[in-house]
Design brief:
This protein is of the alpha/beta class. It contains ten helices and 14 strands. Helix 1 crosses helix 2. The chain starts with a strand and ends in a 20-residue tail after the last helix.
């Protein structure tokens, strides 16, 4: 049965937190460096995932993000090149939805099941911007996850994959828009998020023939920690023991990468023969039920979520974060910089 063979993650070193001058939010959020973007983070997660893997056997690369630095250029071929993969492979970008990560994962599973590929690397990363000092900015975070999907050495088999679509104008970023926009919060949560997530989650459990208590872990997208606790309880889950909330609490809402990063965290703590669920939102919902195998210990990443969370460096000021993101205009120098001195011949 097709499933996840290897998994990995990446969390930027820098954090915004209580030690950051000008940062008024109680929690922490991971923030990419000035020279990082969603592609570089996806590469870092992919390298973590591919540690010790024969890269000649990788037949495809899928990249999922709503914050790719390119509007008209695939990022997947760049990721494949950076990971030193073959040229004769399939590449594709998945975008425009918070469900892009799980959509890419299901597409990889379908390709492997159909026999058109032996293994496909699925990467997902986010570096989204919100308006400075907004509630959304306080909740966002940057990060990436990666999975190698195949038939051999599977550490987590996908037993059930269920998806549903729901057209709703809840959260969006229009062409040319620098920031995400959202409709009224209660409408978004009640008519969009809760409606789709509860329906998809309960249907996946029903099709798997199990209850919420049978799950060892559940990786669930939520806009913030409070909503994560709420949806967990509504599904009959214990948000303290069954849901890896450390990703939201210590990294932030990583958008399309959030549920995949939570799945990596769940796999890091899982034992063989356990049931896991992934539940993701975005104008509908994706729900996957997985069962871990005895090969799980061999598929552990080089660092994973835990390894990257163990290392962090606090940002000295909120102003520096804004400069890194290009959200703060700085006056140019009064004089032009000196011309470079040519090296001596």
């Amino acid at each position: 049965m097709a499933g996840i063979v290897r998994f990995g993650a990446y969390v930027p070193l820098h954090r915004l937190g209580k030690e950051t001058d000008g940062w008024t939010t109680a929690g922490e959020r991971a923030t990419a460096n000035f020279d990082e973007d969603s592609i570089t983070m996806a590469v870092a997660a992919a390298l973590d995932c591919l540690e010790g893997v024969d890269r000649k056997r990788v037949d495809g690369v899928f990249f999922a993000s709503t914050s790719s630095p390119y509007h008209e250029k695939d990022a997947a071929p760049l990721i494949a090149t950076a990971c030193d993969l073959r040229e004769d492979i399939r590449t594709a970008d998945f975008t425009n939805s918070l469900r892009a990560g799980t959509t890419a994962l299901q597409a990889a599973l379908d390709a492997v099941k159909a026999g058109s590929a032996r293994s496909i690397l699925v990467t997902t990363a986010e570096m989204r911007n919100a308006q400075p000092r907004s509630d959304a900015e306080a909740n966002l975070g940057d990060g990436a996850a990666a999975f190698l999907v195949g038939n051999d050495g599977v550490v987590a088999e996908v037993e059930i994959a269920f998806s549903m679509a729901h057209e709703i104008q809840d959260m969006w970023r229009a062409e040319g828009g620098a920031y995400m926009q959202t409709w009224e919060d209660r409408f978004v949560m009640d008519e969009g998020y809760l409606r789709s997530m509860l329906a998809a989650g309960n249907e996946a459990l029903k099709r798997a023939g199990i209850g919420a208590s049978d799950l060892a872990k559940a990786a669930i997208y939520a806009p913030d920690s409070r909503r994560l606790a709420d949806i967990s309880r509504r599904l009959g889950l214990d948000d303290k023991t069954q849901v890896p909330g450390s990703v939201l609490q210590e990294i932030g809402n990583t958008g399309a990468a959030l549920a995949p990063m939570m799945l990596v965290a769940a796999l890091e703590d899982a034992a063989p023969d356990q049931r896991l669920m992934v539940l993701n939102y975005g104008q509908g919902a994706d729900a996957l039920v997985l069962r871990t195998t005895s090969a799980l210990s061999k598929g552990s990443p080089n660092r994973g979520v835990k390894g990257f969370l163990a290392s962090k460096k606090m940002m000295p000021s909120y102003q520096q974060f804004l400069r890194w993101r290009g959200l703060l205009d700085i006056a140019p120098a009064a004089r032009r910089p000196p011309l470079p001195v040519p090296s001596a011949s």
